[in-house]
Amino acid sequence: MENIVEIKELNKTYDGKYKALDNLSLRVKKGEIFGLLGPNGSGKSTTINCLLSLLNYDSGSIKIFGKEMTPESYDIKSKIGVVFQDVAVFAELTVYENINYFCGLYIFDKTQRKQYVEDAIKLVGLEEFKKFYPKQLSGGLLRRLNIACGVAHKPELIILDEPTVAVDPQSRNNILDGIKKLNENGATIIYTTHYMEEVEQICKKIVIIDSGHVIASGTKEELKNLISTGEKITITIENLTQELVDKVSKLKNVISATNENETLYVIYKKGEDNLSNLVDFLKSNNVKYSKIFSELPSLNDVFLELTGKGLRD
Ligand code: ADP
Ligand code: MG
Asked: pLDDT band for position 300 (50/70/90)?
């Protein structure tokens, strides 16, 4: 498949000393929703800004659509839509006028532009707010406007830098659905976030970074296969005793068994029959349990096992 973005061994220091990117390499293929996942300060925005030639970097190479990107690459830039982490819209323009302005930077035909602006408004669900000014919008609606402004010209590559930070759940779902639609309509997406749930929800390919360095990449299944945790089983047991917790911790494939009051948490290595083995064990020991469920590891578990710390500070 065609590479839309190829970053090779990118290094970037701020103020000549602070290393924000450390030999970072990644590749985004055509048609992907590519997730760049990492905690705050890991270098996501720096990567995006280098990619867009908005920042100089020390060494490495960046190709977009197979070409070297420079600050003068207008032909490349017109095929990219960017939604920056900080909302950037005009306070004195309405929702409609803002989108029309940004779309007008690339789409000169008025009839076509009108259609594109309407499409963008529909995509983010701002139909009722066309005549509103930015200051009249809630945080979530403002973010949706910011996205509409970045994508209205129907670019081939769309880069969104943490578009859902501090938005309400309704706007968040609207934004994620909109991104999926843009992708279904043919756009390649680069999506940065520190929320692992979002990446699990929408991204086909994921790169996890920490301290400016790629620590793992792959599909979410591939990432989960990198770690020893295979599944996590949670059980509610009446009169749970320490003795039982200890016994469970010695069962086959169990990495650890811990409890909090009457809830037992069992972390298993990968295995076909972990849940049924545990149920059999509980039955043969006459243990009464109410709730029992098994979960696959999350990307947070992956991050935790690879770096020794959680994704959230
Ligand atoms: P992220 O987007 O993943 O939160 P950033 O790319 O913004 O991370 O930042 C990476 C690191 O570089 C952070 O430690 C941050 O403090 C530092 N940094 C970012 N921008 C600047 C800047 N303009 N000057 C100095 N340091 C910066
Ligand atoms: Mg950032």
From this structure: confident
Ligand 2 mean position, distance from CA 39 (Å): 9
- Looking from the CA of residue 162, the nearest atom of ligand 1 is 2
pLDDT band per the 50, 70, 90 thresholds, residue 313: very low
Which residues form ligand 1's pocket by a CB distance below 6 Å? 14-15, 18, 20, 38, 40-46
Q: Which domains does the chain have, with CATH numbers?
A: 3-224 (3.40.50.300), 229-296 (3.30.70.100)
CA 212 to ligand 2 centroid distance, Å: 12
Task: Give the global pTM.
Answer: 0.88
pLDDT recorded at residue 311? 61
Asked if residues 160 and 188 have their Cβ atoms less than 8 Å apart, the reply is no
